[in-house]
Amino acid sequence: MTDIHALNREFARYDQVEKSHTYRLAEHDSDVFDEDYEIATLDIAPFLHGDARDKAKFVDQFGAAVQEIGFSVLTGHGVDMSLYEEMHDLVVEFFESQSLDQKMQFRAERQGSVNQGYFPIEETSDIHPDQVEGWVMCRRAFDLDQTPDFKAAQFWPDTKFEREFRRLVLSHERLFKPITQAMLQSLGCDPHLYDEKLTQTNFGLRLNYYPPLNDSQVQTGAGRLLGHEDVDLFTLLPAPRVDGLQVWNHRSGKWVRLKAPPGSLIINTGDYMQRISNDRLPSTTHRVGNPADGSCSSTPRISFPMAVYVWEDEILDVLPGLGEPRYEPIKAINFHTRSTAKFYGDDYAVES
Questions:
Q1: Euclidean distance between CA atoms 318 and 298, whole angstroms
Q2: 2 located within any domain
Q3: What is the CATH number of the domain that holds 44?
Q4: Is residue 1 part of a domain?
């Protein structure tokens, strides 16, 4: 495991898309923050329910925001805020009701492209001692297709959690295609190019439990989650109750503190999207630091982002009409695991 002052450039050999900037994995006194920059908050309801003019207006605003910084905050998405409140409490129960020995029975291992299962605190990755426990479930862990041979106990310590978190998955899954369509339309592409690939596609639902930190943990400077870029098409993150999310503005070279309204969805593009968009939609660096109000010493931070992938055999190639391709076509499993080998070790990469 590397030290808390490590730079991202130490791991550049794993990058599968262009990432030329340099940053520390954890927050540092030398970091510069842009306190005036505001990431766009947009109402997606006109795109979901409006006419062609409504859709075009949203696409212009959304596309501009995502091309500018790779992030946007969406309201009007149709997911009831009460579901997010229930999921918050469920994540707390999920982590606090199990002993470490019980959790370790589900220690994360690669299934397809995704490292699925439990990540102990300070072991989110091999390269940084993050102050977070995590649990990742991909589509294989949910009985979404109601198959008779599905065995929830293979993935879950208590099968009730599969049923409950499935509600969140189903609510977000219906947004996969509209969000992708808006992104593709903003690039001037056929908005439906990925409709088939996103039909019952794979994803990664990650439950994050950031426990309260004691003084010695705060003083280490390790931070709650290292700076990174997501490896997916995009991520849906319900606005957390506790602050801490920091976004790198690649245009200004400064960090932005993202505070989203309760009930909103934070959207950010990942490596898959940067590759197929020929670098038009950036995979933006972000991390979780300690909130400025000091609440990290008394209050756990909960988040449950959902990463949108495509299945392992799909080919990631540059979309038509976006100029000379900067990247060769590549199978998703090779692309995904070569990138995430940075976190899990070189043996994680699939090269066949």
A1: 47
A2: no
A3: 2.60.120.330
A4: no
150-163 per-position pLDDT tens digit: 999 999 999 999 99
Show the domain range for 307: 8-345
Residue 258 included in any domain? yes
Phi then psi for residue 139, to 5 deg, are -55, -30
Q: Which residues pair with 43 in a beta bridge?
A: 75
Total number of domains in the chain: 1
Query: Do 247 and 228 meet the contact criterion of CB atoms below 8 Å apart?
Result: no
Q: Answer whether 183's CB lies under 8 Å from 62's CB.
A: yes
Cβ contact 289:246 at 8 Å: yes
194 occurs within a structural domain? yes
Tokens linked to 291: 């909130």
The span from the CA of 305 to the CA of 236, in Å, is 6
> What DSSP character marks residue 319?
P
The answer to whether residues 351 and 339 touch, using CB atoms and an 8 Å cutoff, is no
Distance (Å, rounded) from C-alpha 343 to C-alpha 346? 9
* Whether residue 347 has pLDDT greater than 90: yes
Per residue in 119-146, pLDDT tens?
A: 999 898 888 788 899 999 999 999 998 8
Cβ contacts of 91 within 8 Å, gap of 6 or more: 207, 208, 209, 302, 304
Residue 270 in contact with residue 232, Cβ under 8 Å?
Answer: yes
Question: What is the model's pLDDT at position 348?
Answer: 96
